[in-house]
Amino acid sequence: MIKEKKLVPLLSILLVLVLCVIGYEVFYLINDYQVNQDVEYVVGTDTFEVNTPITINDFKIQATNGTIVNSGYHFDTSTIGEKSFTLETKNKKGTSKKYVVTYKVVDTTAPTITNDTNMTFYVDTELDFYSLLHVSDNYDENVRFTINGNIDITTAGTYNLAAILVDSSNNKATIPLTITLLDKPQANEGNYVLEDGVITTSKGYQIEIVDHIAYINGVMIVNKSYPLPSDYAYGFHEDTQAAFDLMKLDAAALGLNLYNSSGYRTYNYQDYLYNNYCNLYGQTYADTISARPGHSEHQSGYALDLNTIKGSFANTDEGIWVNDNCYKYGFILRYPKDKTNETGYAYEPWHLRYVGIELATALYNDGDWLTVEDYFGITSEYPY
Ligand SMILES: [Zn+2]
C-alpha cells in the first residue's frame, strides 16, 4: 500500500507538468495567431483635387495589427477619374501583404480670370473678350465662356458686364467686368493733345499716356492717332544713334554703305515739310507720304531715313540687307509694303524706327514684317 501512497504526489506532479505544457501551448498559439493576423486598415480620405500632388500620408490611413509601408508610391492626379494603387502593409510578424486601394481625382475648382477685369477703351474698339480676358483653370484648357450684359461700343460710358466661366466638371464662376468706353480724343483747333491715362487696345495691350505721350510696354508710339506734343524736343535719341552706329559698322564690313539722311526733326520743321507737300500735291495725297506736325516719328528721336528716300532703295544691296538685318540692332521697317491700311503710310523701305531688339525681332516675324499697329491692336487715323 506504500506504493499506492507514493503514486498520488507523482500523479499530481505529472498533472501540473501536463497543465504547464498545455498552458504554454495555448499561450503560444494565441500569441502566434495574434502576430500573424493581417493588418486591418481604414482609409480616411480618398478624394483629391486634380493637379494637386499627394503622398500616402494624405490618405490618412488608420492601421491596426501592423503598419503601412510609407514609401515607394506614385499617385497620378493629372487627370480626373477613379484611380487605384497597391498599398503595402506589414503585420506584427513582419510579413508583407498588398491591397488595391481605389481613390478619386476630381475637379471642384472654378475657372478664373487672371488679368484686370476693369478695362478702359476708346469707343469703337473691337472688343474680343476671348482674347482680352486671360482665363485660367486648374484643369481645363477649354473653358466655356459667355458674357452677360449689354455694351454699345459706339457710346462712351461705363458698362457693368459679367463673364460666366464653366469648366468641364461644371464648376462655374461669375466674374464682374467693368468696361469704360471713352470718346476718342477730339481735335481742338490744331492744338491736339492726348489726355493722360491708361487705355487698353483691341489686342489687350495697355497704352499708357504720360505727359501727353503714348507708350506701350515702354515703347513710344507715334502715328496718325497718337501725336507728340508740339514742345516735345528730345533730339536724336542716344539709343537710336548707338544702334545705328553698330548697324552701319557691320554693314560696312560687308561693303555696304549706310548713312542717315534724315534723323531728328522738330515740330516746326515737320510743319514746314508737311505744308510744302500740301502745296505741291494737295492734303489728301500729302497725308499718305508726310506726317502732320506732331505725328512724325522723326520728332520722337527714334526714327531715321536711310540713304536715298526713294522706293528703289528697297532693291539696292543696302536696302535688301537692311530689310533682313535691321531688327538685330533693334530697328523695324516702320512702313512695310502693302500695310498702308494699318500704318496710314505708303511703303517706305528707307524709314527705320528704333524699338529695341525684342520687339523688333517680333515685328520682323521671320521676314514677313508686322506693323506696330497690327501687333499692338491700335489705329493710325487722324481724328481731325
Ligand atoms: Zn522717315
Task: Offer a concise description of the structure.
The chain is α+β, with helices and mostly antiparallel strands and 384 residues long. It has helices at 2-36, 129-132, 238-253, 267-281, 283-289, 317-325, 340-343, 357-364, 372-376; strands at residues 40-43, 47-49, 61-64, 66-68, 81-91, 96-106, 112-113, 118-122, 135-136, 144-148, 157-166, 172-182, 197-200, 206-210, 213-216, 219-221, 260-262, 303-306, 331-335, 348-354.
Can you give a write-up of this model?
- The protein is built from 9 helices and 20 strands.
- A 4-stranded mixed sheet has the order 2-6-5-4, with no helix packed on it.
- The chain is elongated, with a radius of gyration of 40 Å.
- A hairpin with a 5-residue loop joins strand 11 and strand 12.
- It has 3 domains: 67 residues, Immunoglobulin-like (Sandwich); 73 residues, Sandwich (Immunoglobulin-like); 148 residues, Muramoyl-pentapeptide Carboxypeptidase, domain 2 (2-Layer Sandwich), CATH 3.30.1380.10.
- With 384 residues, it is an alpha+beta fold.
- Helix content is 27%, strand content 28%.
- The protein binds zinc ion (ZN).
- Zinc ion binds next to strand 18.
